[in-house]
Each structure stands twice: as C-alpha cells, then as structure tokens.
TrEMBL record:
Organism: Actinomycetospora corticicola
Gene Ontology biological-process entries: lipid catabolic process
Taxonomic superkingdom: Bacteria
Keywords on record: Signal
AB hydrolase-1 domain segment(s): 73-201
Pfam family for this entry, one: Abhydrolase_6
UniProt GO molecular function: hydrolase activity
Keyword Magnesium tagged: no
Name listed for the protein in its UniProt record: Pimeloyl-ACP methyl ester carboxylesterase
Cleavable signal peptide: 1-33
Membrane-traversing stretches: none
Length: 342
C-alpha cells in the first residue's frame, strides 16, 4: 500500500496517450505469476493477479491508520484512474474536511475484464480494513459503484469488512448504450456492462445486497451513459436483498437538476452532498436531509472554480481517448468458473 500524494499532477493526456498507444500497438502483457493467496469457501477464489501488483494499486491519504471512523475507499469508473476521477475534487474536499480516504486503481483504466479488476477491490477492502481497524465505506462511480458488489458476492469474507456502500451512477443493471458501441467491437468491461450481459446476470442473480451493509445508490435521470436511469426501472437502483437500501435520484433533491454521467462522478454538488450524507449516517443517505441550497451551487466542494472547468474538460477528453483507442474485442469475456459453479 502506498501513500496517496497530497498534491495531484494533472498529466491525463500524456499518461492516457502513452497507455493507449502501447495497447494499440499490441504490446505483450507481462506473464502473471502464480497466485500467492489460496481461496476457500469462506474467503472466495484464489487471486489470479500477483499480490504485489494488487498491493501497489492501493493508495491512502492521511489519518487512515487505526482510525475512529470508517475510511472511504474510492473506486473509479470505466476509462479512469483514481487520480483522473477523484484527485481534483473528492480528495481535495476530503483532505480539507479531515475525512479519511483511500483508493484503488483498477487495471487498464478499468477497461479490461471486470472479474479480474474485482480482485483489486477485494484486496483493497482487506488492506484498508486492516489498516484502519474499521469496516470500510466503499465509494464508487459508474463501474466503480457496481464492481464492489461482485467482490462482496464471490469473496464472502469481505462482507464482514464493509459497512457502507455508496455508489454514484452505478451500472448495477447495465446500459443499453453498450450495444451500439460494441457493434464494431469494444473493451471487455463495456461488453460486461451491457444491460443483458452474462456478467450482470450472474451479479444480480439472487439478492443484490447483503445483510450488515447499508447501501446508497444515487443517479441522475439525465444520465446518457448508464441508460436508462429512468423510472420505473432505473439501471442504478438496487431492488432486492438484505441490508439497508437507499435509492435516490438527483431529482429527489433538486427537481429538474440536469447532470450528465461524467459530471456526477466529479463536479456535481448534489452527488457530493448525497455521498457525504451517506457517510455521515451509516451508509444511508436521505434526500430530505440535504440542504436545498446545494441546488444553486455550480461545483461540489474541492473543485477549484478557476481551474475546475479545464480539469473537467481534460477528464472528459481522457475518457473519450480510452473509448476510442482501447483494443476492441468482439464478445463478452467468459464467466469465471467460480461464477458458474452450481
């Protein structure tokens, strides 16, 4: 586990360009070493990713060792790293407010097989819980708001290590947008987030939530990426299972509030207010508790009003670069054996 830098560097274009060009050139992926962790019925399947690689993906801010309150573990969305998704908004705001946080970087900008990326989340949950001495509060955007559910489902020991699950525009039931995008091939994780994918069928079979964990799922009805997020069957909504569930539309707080997908995970003041309200109330946000003054705010806390627009433009451009350049496949990755057993 590495410390999270207290000052971020904004090098999206160069970093994304180097990664994308390398992938497009077909550079070989390093061989994966034998897993160092053996699975069991209680702890789940063995990791396929080397332990050192998993550990290097976890970064933490100040005040996350032996804490008196849960640490927020941030998980980025598809096409993004934690630096790109959260360093210029949430992390700045959390540092200023003294809120403890860590993050986990998913491989390949969260574009590759989500089943493998979930191993990074499992390892991060274990590491942050051990570091903090408290149950973890997962905070994820888009794919990052859904992937934790895969970790909880197939690695049962994580359910005792997570107390709160807060998701911003999560792709819980996928998106119809994947189908036109994937007609010419697309990244594995985009296939898996298609509305009727085998991956989502496995994820949502049985109860969607677990006892002992409080879940808040929030969304914007004007989401153009996780689509449709409209009643009566919003993609982001969690419908079944144990534990506590709060399903909240931004319209519940600010009727007619217009936000797109990427702004929800980076600059939207309503989303931020719901995230922090959930964290302050055991994982269950309430639209009724949110001060309606948030409806008049341009940016969430942490976003520099001068540099913010340029950062947001770079963030959007970087996401588009990943979509355009990531190597395309023409079918969804097969389900892992542990997800089809029985």
């Amino acid at each position: 586990m590495r410390p999270f830098p207290t000052t971020g560097r904004w090098a999206r274009a160069l970093a994304a360009g180097a990664i994308g060009l390398a992938l497009a050139a077909g550079l070989a992926t390093p061989a994966v070493a034998a897993p160092t962790w053996t699975g069991s019925a209680a702890s789940g399947p063995a990791f396929s990713v080397p332990q050192a690689t998993l550990d290097a993906a976890v970064a933490c801010g100040p005040g996350t060792t032996n804490t008196s309150r849960p640490v927020a573990l941030f998980i980025p969305g598809t096409t993004l790293t934690p630096e790109e998704n959260f360093s210029w908004n949430y992390f700045r705001a959390f540092r200023a407010a003294g809120r403890p946080y860590c993050s986990v970087e998913l491989p390949n900008h969260a574009m590759s097989d989500i089943q493998v990326s979930a191993e990074y989340v499992v390892n991060a949950i274990r590491a942050v819980q051990a570091r903090s001495g408290q149950k973890v509060a997962l905070v994820g955007f888009s794919q990052g708001g859904m992937i934790g559910r895969w970790a909880l489902k197939y690695w049962p020991d994580t359910r005792t290590k997570v107390g709160q699950y807060v998701a911003i525009d999560p792709s819980n039931h996928g998106t119809l947008d994947s189908y036109p995008v994937c007609t010419v091939g697309c990244a594995p994780s985009i296939w898996q987030q298609a509305s009727f994918s085998r991956f989502l069928g496995a994820l949502n079979a049985g109860g969607e939530t677990f006892a002992g964990i409080n879940y808040t799922s929030m969304w914007t009805p004007t989401d153009e990426v996780v689509f449709p997020n409209l009643p009566p069957a919003e993609s982001s909504r969690l419908n079944t299972g144990a534990g506590g569930r709060a399903n909240i539309s931004t319209f519940d707080v600010c009727p007619g509030h217009v936000a797109d997908h990427l702004s929800m995970g980076s600059i939207d003041p309503v989303a931020y207010a719901l995230v922090t309200d959930a964290l302050d109330h055991g994982g269950l946000a309430s639209a009724a508790r949110i001060d309606r003054a948030v409806c008049l705010q341009a940016f969430q806390p942490g976003v520099d009003p001068v540099a913010g627009p340029a950062r947001f433009a770079a963030y959007v451009a970087g996401a588009g670069f990943q979509i355009a350049t990531y190597p395309r496949v023409f079918a969804e990755p097969p389900l892992k054996a542990y997800a089809t057993a029985g």
